[in-house]
Amino acid sequence: MEIVLKKFSELTNFELYELLKLRTDVFVVEQHCPYPELDGTDLDAVHGMAILDGELIGCFRVLPETMKRPVAIGRVAVRQNHRAKGIARRLMEEAVSYTEKTGEEEVYLQAQAHLVDFYGSFGFKEESDIYLEDGIPHVDMRLKKSVTKR
Predict the structure, then answer these.
(1) Distance between CA atoms of residues 122 and 45, nearest Å
(2) Long-range pairs for 56-59 at CB < 8 Å and ≥24 separation?
(3) Where are the beta strands (DSSP E) in 43-102?
(4) What is the average pLDDT across 38-48?
(5) Which of 19, 55, 71, 84 is 20 to 30 A off residue 47, Cα-Cα?
(6) In order of start, what are the domains of the chain with their CATH numbers?
(7) How do 136-144 and 131-133 pair as beta strands?
(8) What angle do CA 85, 100, 57 make, to 5 degrees?
């Protein structure tokens, strides 16, 4: 398996289609959660894609810092038939590594509540109570690093 990082403008039409299909399959269909998957932030994101034998099997995105929050990792997803193989962990390692290479001091994410321990294993700390986002329990989490921003 290889993980490829690309800015939105670097994605091919096929890669974009596969990313959106994977995310829709996981976050909308599997989780029975009709929500706006196309949220307007993909254009500014760096997209991570886990590829195995030419197939997209997992993904994440890293969103740039805004006035309201630091850099954020989101849309971490793995195809159902590839779960429990360490792929999500590998994706998160790559996402966190990317933020380290860009010199980010803090990284934010909105974790589904049942994944708090998973994200906690990367150093993320809870910073909110559980709240519903699109009908699914979530917790805001933040990773604080002591690095010098470049």
Answers:
(1) 21
(2) 56/15, 56/18, 56/19, 56/22, 57/1, 57/82, 57/87, 58/22, 58/82, 58/87, 58/88, 58/90, 58/91, 59/19, 59/22, 59/23, 59/91
(3) 46-52, 55-63, 71-78
(4) 93
(5) 84
(6) 2-144 (3.40.630.30)
(7) antiparallel
(8) 25
With CA atoms as reference, report the closest residue to 63 among 99, 37, 29. Answer: 99
Compute the CA torsion angle 115, 67, 11, 147 (nearest 10 deg). Answer: -70
User: Could you tell me what percentage of the chain is helix, strand and coil, using 3-state DSSP and rounding each to the nearest 5?
Assistant: 35, 35, 35
Say whether 140 sits in a helix, a strand or coil: strand
The vertex-47 CA angle with 43 and 51, nearest 5°, equals 140
State the Cα angle at 64 between 114 and 147, rounded to 5°. 85
Token pair for 89: 């962990």
Nearest to 113 by CA among 126, 102, 96, 94: 126
The pLDDT tens digits of the residues spanning 50-93 come to 999 999 999 999 999 888 889 999 999 999 999 999 999 999 99
